[in-house]
Amino acid sequence: ILRLKERKTETGQLRVKIKDEDGKLIEEVNFEVTLRDRDGLAVQTKYSGYYGEVIFRDVLPGVYSVSVSENRGDYAIATESGISVNANETESVNIVVSLEEVYVQHY
């Protein structure tokens, strides 16, 4: 009997912390955080769940971008690109989001 050894693909992790312009973790807002590959295709999407951070697990080694948004429209969409993930390592990145400035135009 011939047994083939199962080949395990080594992966890494990416921890994304969502902070305000003062460098404080934003914990009261449920942000949507999307991990995208080099071609811009969504690989994983997670929600911060009011904790101010997400962890992407089982990420194949490579270069990625991360976009952060929230559905109420209070915060501007933020994107960080050129994030390298290596096998058997956890990469950490801080994404700074700012409150949207709303301009009301009167006629």
Overall description:
The protein has 107 residues and is mainly β. The protein has strands at residues 12-19, 32-36, 42-47, 53-59, 62-69, 78-85, 90-96. The strands form two sheets. It has a four-stranded antiparallel β-sheet with strand order 3-2-5-6, with no helix packed on it. A hairpin with an 8-residue loop joins strand 5 and strand 6 (78-85). It starts with 11 loop residues before the first strand and ends in an 11-residue tail after the last strand.
Notable characteristics:
107 residues, four-stranded antiparallel sheet, elongated
Topology:
Layout: E1 12-19, E2 32-36, E3 42-47, E4 53-59, E5 62-69, E6 78-85, E7 90-96
Parallel strand pairs: 1-7
Antiparallel strand pairs: 1-4, 2-3, 2-5, 5-6
